[in-house]
Write a structure and sequence with these properties.
Blueprint: H1 3-6, E1 16-19, H2 26-35, E2 43-48, H3 53-56, E3 62-63, E4 74-79, H4 85-100, E5 106-110, H5 123-131, E6 138-142, H6 151-154, E7 158-161, H7 167-174, E8 191-195, E9 200-204, H8 210-220
Parallel strand pairs: 1-6, 1-7, 2-4, 2-5, 3-4, 5-6
Antiparallel strand pairs: 7-8, 8-9
C-alpha cells in the first residue's frame, strides 16, 4: 500500500467490504484497515469465525463472551461458529442497542458468509443501515460475496476485491461496482478498490506484512503513561 493510496482511506462513519477467494491476502488487507482506525476513540469488536492467527496474535487484544459489549475504547475479539447462530445474532442485537443508545463502536467481521442467515433482515443489516449515522463503521470480509447479506455490498462506502473463483460471486459484486471492475487483471496480493463516494476505482498495492500490522495495532493499544 503506497502513500498515494492512503488518502482515500475510509472515515470513521464509512463501511468497507473486502472480498476474495482464500489465500489472496484479504484478511491481511482487512487487518491493515483496522490498524488505520483510531482504536482509542471507541471500542472495536472483531467477530472471528475462523480463529484467524493474525487477529489472535495481537498481544493487547481482549477476548470477550456473547454477553459482553464493552463501552471502553480498545480492541475486543469474540470467537463464534456457524452453529452458534442464535448466540451470534443476540450479541449483534446487543451491539445495535448500545449503538442506538449513544455508544458508537467499530465492527470487524471475518468471515462474513458465516453470519446468521443473510436472506432475512437481522441485526447485521440493522447495524449496517444505521451505523453510518451513528459513527459505527463495519469492515466485512468474505470469501463468498454471493452468500453475505446484500446490504453489506449496497451500504459499503468502499468495496475492495481480490480475485474470486465463482461466477456467482463475480455477478453479485458486479451489480454494485462499475462495469469492468472485475475484468482487469491484477498482480498477486494487489486488490481492486472502488470508492462509492468518489465513484473512482484503483488498483492498490500490497499492504504491510502481518507482523507490521500487529505492531501498529499494538502501539495504539498501549496504555497511556502516567506522569507524576
Amino acid at each position: 500500500m503506497s502513500a498515494d493510496d492512503k488518502w482515500m482511506l475510509p472515515s470513521d462513519d464509512e463501511h468497507t467490504t473486502i472480498v476474495g477467494r482464500n489465500g489472496t491476502g484479504k484478511t491481511q488487507h482487512g487487518g491493515w484497515h483496522l490498524s488505520q482506525q483510531n482504536l482509542k476513540a471507541k471500542p472495536w469488536f472483531i467477530l472471528d469465525f475462523k480463529n484467524e492467527e493474525m487477529l489472535n496474535s495481537i498481544p493487547r487484544i481482549r477476548e470477550i463472551g456473547f454477553k459482553d459489549t464493552p463501552s471502553k475504547p480498545g480492541l475486543y475479539i469474540l470467537k463464534s461458529r456457524p452453529d452458534l447462530e442464535e448466540d451470534t445474532e443476540a450479541w449483534l442485537w446487543r451491539l445495535w442497542e448500545a449503538m442506538t443508545g449513544g455508544e458508537p463502536h467499530g465492527l470487524f467481521i471475518d468471515e462474513g458468509y458465516m453470519l446468521p442467515n443473510p436472506t432475512r433482515k437481522g441485526a447485521f443489516d440493522a447495524l449496517l443501515t444505521q451505523g453510518r449515522s451513528k459513527r459505527s463503521p463495519i469492515i466485512t470480509l468474505s470469501q463468498r460475496p454471493v452468500r453475505i447479506s446484500r446490504t453489506a455490498l449496497s451500504e459499503a462506502s468502499h468495496l475492495i476485491a481480490f480475485d474470486l473463483n465463482d461466477r456467482r460471486d463475480h455477478k453479485s459484486l458486479e451489480e454494485v461496482v462499475p462495469s469492468g471492475f472485475m475484468k482487469e487483471t491484477i498482480p498477486k496480493w494487489h486488490a481492486r478498490w472502488y470508492s462509492v463516494k468518489k465513484d473512482r476505482t484503483w488498483i492498490v498495492k500490497p499492504v504491510p506484512d502481518a507482523d507490521q500490522i500487529i505492531d501498529d495495532i499494538n502501539v495504539q493499544l498501549e496504555p497511556k503513561k502516567r506522569w507524576f
